Amino acid sequence: MADPAFSLRFRDDEPHEEPAVTLDAFLDQADASAVRLEAGEDARLLIPHLARVQLVEIAFPRFRDGRGYSAARILREAGYAGELRAEGDVLVDQLLFMRRCGFDSFAPAAPIDPEVAERLLNIYPYVYQPATDDAVPVWKLRHG
Hints:
Elements: E1 21-22, H1 23-28, E2 34-37, E3 55-60, H2 67-77, E4 83-88, H3 95-101, E5 105-108, H4 114-121, H5 138-143
Parallel strand pairs: 1-2, 2-3, 3-4, 4-5
């Protein structure tokens, strides 16, 4: 079930003051607070710097490229609490799964109807596996 406090945000809703820099540039700049991870880049390199990161933008060059899901989960499980944005070929039917992996902001290449997105984020009342969100798997609800 989607978090009731979650609000679907798009890039233009709350512009980040500092543009996201590449991972290499971020690691070289002690004052950067926004970073962009391209597909295949190692999110674990950010773990020592999570305290200063305000935005991590993860690129989805194609909808079928799932490496961004892993990067999001790695960062959330490491304790990252800042904005995690999925950018690029983000499709409406992926939003629920992206949310469960820790994304809280989306910058899709093609427009997404916010009403459709909210409906799809709430389509399933139960989940089957643990993730980075607070949803309790249905088997745990049944069997404690």
